Amino acid sequence: NRRISREAILARLKTRSGKPYRQEDVNGDLKRLHEWGPFSSIQVEAKELPGGEIAVVFIVEEKPIVKKVVFEGNREFDDGKLQEEIQTSPGEVLSETRLNEDITTIYKLYEDDGYYQTRINYEIKLDPASGEAVVFVNIDEGHEIRIKDIIIKGTIELDPDDLLGVMETHAQSLFSILHRGFFKEDEFKTDLERITLYCKSQGYLDMKILDVDRTIGDEGARLYITITISEGKQYQVGDVIVMGNENFPAEDLEELLPLK
After folding, report:
1. What is the C-alpha separation between 204 and 162, in angstroms, rounded?
2. Given CB 3.0 to 4.6 Å as the disulfide criterion, which of 81, 104, 219, 250 pairs with 77?
3. Cα(86)–Cα(101) distance, rounded to whole angstroms?
4. CB of 255 within 8 A of CB of 249?
5. Could you give the CA distance from residue 193 to residue 201 in angstroms, rounded to a whole number?
């Protein structure tokens, strides 16, 4: 241990000099040190000494400190913008868990800006002498993807335009600044749920989405989406019976119901 003092480590241990050796205490100490977070490796050794005493040795290896984060391949967003978005920063203890979360954050940033083919990886270079690490984030931005067309197949009675109308995802339009044609994965998944709910609201309770095909066109940077559905049977409302009404006529209550 270099940065973390011996006293700070001992303060977290139940195992104490002069106390009886208890394996459950040692196991708990290991768990606490792991949960504390600053160590990449923790080992414990118990050695029997002359006179029947036991020496308990905790061997720890500290996680490196981030010296700097280097972004490579980014053109759409500058280094400052990317650094603002992530948790990994100079002076912090390096955490690969946080670093993987940061990569997901950067993916989302690009996706929200229309970059659907972005590829990101990272490399950590350690300096054993200083205990510091330089994190290299390599970004292949790919092309800015715009949706060229969305097609819905499999409809019989339902109008595909009505289904497209409930979606927030739209093909690019030269006539509308709202329809810029960006593809966002989270929004598209919600759109599939919107389509399903709309169909069920029209009585197609067995409706299913059979397939979703996303194809990048030969011209590149253009996305074609095909959604194939099965309508199933349309159910109609039969008799509506109002029961338990004592103060209002059934006819008046039935008039308030959306189901006819």
Report:
1. 14
2. 81
3. 8
4. no
5. 12
Count of all residues that appear for the chain in the document: 260
Residue 34, both tokens: 């792991």
Of 212 and 236, more confident: 212
Angle ∠(69,74,218) on CA atoms, nearest 5: 145
Closest alpha carbon to 227 in 245, 247, 207: 207
The model's pLDDT over 213-244, given as tens digits with 9 standing for 90+, comes to: 999 887 767 899 999 999 999 998 766 666 66
At 76-116, the pLDDT tens digits run: 999 999 999 999 999 998 999 999 999 999 999 998 888 88
How many helices (H) and strands (E) are present in the chain, helices listed first?
7, 8
One of 3.10.20.310, 3.40.50.300, 3.30.360.10, 3.40.50.1100 is the CATH number of 146-230, namely 3.10.20.310
Which of 3.90.1150.10, 3.50.20.20, 3.10.350.10, 3.10.20.310 would CATH assign to domain 6-62? 3.10.20.310
